Amino acid sequence: MTTMNAVLAAGGPELHPQAAEGVQSVAWLLIALPLAGAAILLLSGRRTDKWGHLLGTAMSLGAFVVGVLAFFQMLGQHADGRSRLVHLFPFISAGSLKVDMNLLVDPLSISFVLLITGVGSLIHIYSIGYMSHDPDRRRFFAYLNLFVAAMLLLVLADNYVGLYIGWEGVGLASYLLIGFWQHKPSAATAAKKAFIVNRVGDFGLSVAIMVMFATFGSLSYQDVFGQASQASQGTITAIGLLLLLGACGKSAQLPLQSWLLDAMEGPTPVSALIHAATMVTAGVYLIVRSHAIYELSPDARLLVTIVGVATLLAGAIIGCAKDDIKKALAGSTMSQIGYMVLAAGLGRPGYVFAIAHLIAHGFFKAGMFLGAGSVMHAMNDDVNMRKFGGLRKVMPITFATFGLGYLAIIGFPGLSGWWTKDGIIDAAFEKGGTSGQILGWLALIGAGITAYYMSRLMFMTFFGEPRWDEDVHPHESPKVMTVPLILLAIGSVAGGAFLILGDRFAKFLAPVVGEPEASHRLITPYTAIVFALMVVGVGLAYVQYLRRPVPRTAPAGNPAVTFARKDLYGDALNESLLMRPGQWLTRLTVFFDNRGVDGVVNGLAAFIGGTSGRVRRVQTGFVRSYALSMFVGAALVVGALFLVRI
Amino acid sequence: MTGHYLVLSAILFTIGGIGVLIRRNAIVVFMCVELMLNATNLAFVSFARMHGSLDGQIIAFFVMVVAAAEVVVGLAIIMTIFRSRKSSSVDDANLLKY
Amino acid sequence: MLTALIAIPAVGALLVALLPKGRDALAKQVALGVTLVVAVLSIVMAVQFDPNGKRFQFTEKYWWIKQFGVHYAVGVDGVALVLILLSTILVPLVVLASWNDADRSGGVDAPPKRSVKTYFALLLALEAMMVGVFAATDVFLFYVFFEAMLIPVYFIIGSYGGPQRSYAAVKFLLYSLFGGLLMLAAVIGLYVVSANAGHGTFLFDELRAPEILHHISPTTAKWLFLGFFIAFAIKAPLVPFHTWLPDAAGQAPAGAAVLIVGVLDKVGTFGMLRFCLELFPGASKWFTPVVLTLSVIGIVYGAVLAIGQVDIKRLIAYTSVSHFGFITLGIFAMTSSGQSGATLYMVNHGFSTGALFLLAGFMISRRGSARIDAYGGVQKVAPLLAGTFLVAGLSGLSLPGLSSFVSEFMVLVGTFSRYKVPAVIATVGIILAAIYILWMYQRTMNGPTAEAVKGMKDLSKRELIVVAPIIAIIVALGFYPKPVLDAINPSVKQTLIQVHQQDPKPTVAEKGSHQ
Q1: Which of residues 16-45 of B touch A (CB under 8 A)?
Q2: A376-393 burial, b if ≥16 CB within 10 A, otherwise e?
Q3: So which residues are the signal peptide here (chain B) (predicted)?
Q4: What is the value of ipTM here, to two decimals?
Q5: pTM above 0.90, yes or no
Q6: The CATH number fitting domain B2-85, selected from 3.20.20.20, 3.40.980.10, 2.60.40.10, 1.10.287.3510
Q7: Partners of residue A18 on adjacent β-strands
């Protein structure tokens, strides 16, 4: 009963999941199918090269089917009974530490399940075509399946340990896929960097888990959130900040953003699935899932919003300066996730928009990345936009789908991005006070920059005169690649309206994150400003990149441009603050260990050796000197005996 | 009365000891060692007499046996060294060092 | 049962040693057969073990030296059981892995002629002693096995090791002997104390009984604790007693390195848990801050050193220094999840580091160099080798889903609930672990294929058979550690009762009880 009261006091919804029935009771299939796919493909070796990609796709589609069935079952349930628990097996138990492997099927997790398996399956299908010439295609699909399984575990776990396992699992998949072409040193380095930076975030998550266990004696969402109101303010804020650190690592938020741009070394479907649509949004999921913690700590919430706003601006600025189409999109991803994090930090009204934007972003960004992949496919894997231009005529389908995604992300009225992003900006102003005004205006400015850099990307790639290399002959991609593009484009167009109109998504999520106070206003005082800023952004890009010819080599820009091109000196900062001192420290430590610690030991050995070397000189080989020493010794013994006697 | 025997034994032992220390000829050193052994034998026998027990005499027999064995081995060693080095000085045979 | 587990490899060692010269193949087959029999027997024993039954099972007790109260007494609790299983499963794999290690004519550094059968006889002898040391429930017997273990290892490193083998072997021997002598003094001290208490004994069960415990003055207990602890700290090894390990593990043949780091070192941590804590509960608590500090230093220091290594085997050895920091941290956190986690860590570390050493050994035997910069792009030519190496490495950096994660997680959570700062500093280790493993992996396996590596063969069938079971165990224990934990937990509970410690209550619950 105390738990109940605590929940009510925290203002959160009830958290007493019932046992799952029907399809939901086999929710473990969601994870097991892709996991089995990964295992089969990895263990069977070259034997499955011929049909491995089909198996991988089938497993992902199978998970999607299970997800859809579970979703429809959920729709049939009463709103209060939509959180269902699937008991799997006891995982860890020692003393008071008990962790069970259970799955939690609730509106929040099922939203993610549909996104992951849906977009994931489309990307699997796309990859059949994209990777068709790669000798290691089977391995690629194995890793993709592994990723899907880990990501599903991340969102389905009913406790922080399960989440952590999935969390690191997607990190591993990301590592393997970024470094998929590991013979390229740059890819290997990028993969390692992604993993290590993520580990910094994981440090936060691990410590958060420790604090939770020490505070609540349990790690399941139910127990932690239920008792959250009883813990001290300091503890709650600490947990909130540590979770935020974890989220920053995974979602490439400041100050752990630097890995995402390098992660573009991976094959493009990977960038679409992992580094745009799903994995990088795990941080948003973490914050929304832990909303019971954040609702108790205004300080932690404030920091979340600050991180979100800072990243959305930083990402947008980086996006403006990149000539590499994938890196420009990566900057945009950072920025869009910044919006989501900002929304998640805003509290009750923001959660819905955070997740809605996340889903909409999943569609349009995945679509654009795949579109970029299609373009690269046509351009002999070149990523430099300065060598593109005029592609809309030769690649009509790619152009059309990309264009829809573009309109969605800049917030063209009626498309997905408009519904969700305006909601976030509105929620920021709604927060009230100075901080609300500042956050709101910064988010507004971010929207303007978004329109600018996306238009720049669009114009440089698809419009203007062709600036292709001589040996490049662009062509439209095969059906297996364009069909997923079309499906994702449909999502980018309609997703936002579907979710936001009539508060559909808000009501759906209400059992998890709580009912927003008022229903969402479609037209707000800021709608016009957002639209105006968008027009300004597009217009600026039009003047710079369509009216004027685009030079094939990047002109030397002013310091501000250089600043943006160098990723706001993030890498330089990391290098000078962490890497160099780290290397020095390592060398110093090795030296200290060899000369200091081991030196003492070896010195002692040398001392003993040297002493005995000197002492052995007594052994002269002269019989008579031995005899003398014997006599002296005997005399000493006798003398000692006398002394003792007396 | 037996005290005199002990004094004699001590004198003989000292002579033997000094001989071992200062003489170089292996044979002489060897004879000095024998002298020391016999000095102790004398002491043992005297003590046996003094205490009226046979223990000392038994030990004396042991010493004689050891001495005999020693003579056999020792002289053999000295002979071989002399054959190979043409010298019976103990100071010349100092290879077994350090 | 336990006596059989000790005797079979011992007899096998004699048998192999007495085989006529030139029958090398036979020697290997006999060694493999014997170790497999032992492995099967130990698994049978594990199945029969009842976690909820008496603490020590399969006990045997006979007088050995009656005048000094020395028994031949053996028995296993959950902790000893899983460690014995670890050894008996690893040894046959090591035998199979080092099939050709002893008879390779070798490069310039290899000694001219090495006896193949002696190598396998030594391995068998080592197995007998490893089982014995975990099974002994008489402190004197434990000491005898503890010291006797050094002999086969000394000869294995000294005769079959790398270019600096004799330096490494002597260093190993001297370090261990030094610790061993301190322990001998403490063992004798224990006997004296027990004799003063009215009943001179070396039996563990009698020594931990309250009659004798209360008879030891706190000061004496501290000295005796130190005697045991330093011996175990050298064995484990804990910073600053660790410098023998990189040399020994780096110079030993890969198979022997597996046993040194995987099993032999566990004797140290096992001894801390079994003997230091239970025989000297008061002194253990008194020394806890020191040990925790050393552990935390070890975690970070070992990891930083590992990052800076240029030799693969030394790198792995230093990662172990870091991991042993976690184990001692868990033991001295004195919480059930800390100690259970530490024990599980011993097992997991044995397998994951074992796999790393074996795979590094396979790789080194192909290329003939242990330097990291001698490799590059191995993944392209030997994908199986690279893949298994990656899995073992990831287990080394405690990736969730692989076995080490469970134990590291338990240790950290268990430590944090009592000692906040050490746990947080120790958590930094997970970042460093990612750096040292992935950087090594990148330098050896990724990038363009190095010229010297081009003709490298992938894992052979034999090597695959060696590695596959270990990888399977790593994955299985990563997802379902329950069977092992079920065996460990009751023993740990006993230990905690002995040191009068309970798990700290969650702060929320504590507050609730005040209200």
Answers
A1: 17, 20-22, 24, 29
A2: bbbbeebbbbebbbebbe
A3: none
A4: 0.90
A5: no
A6: 1.10.287.3510
A7: A84
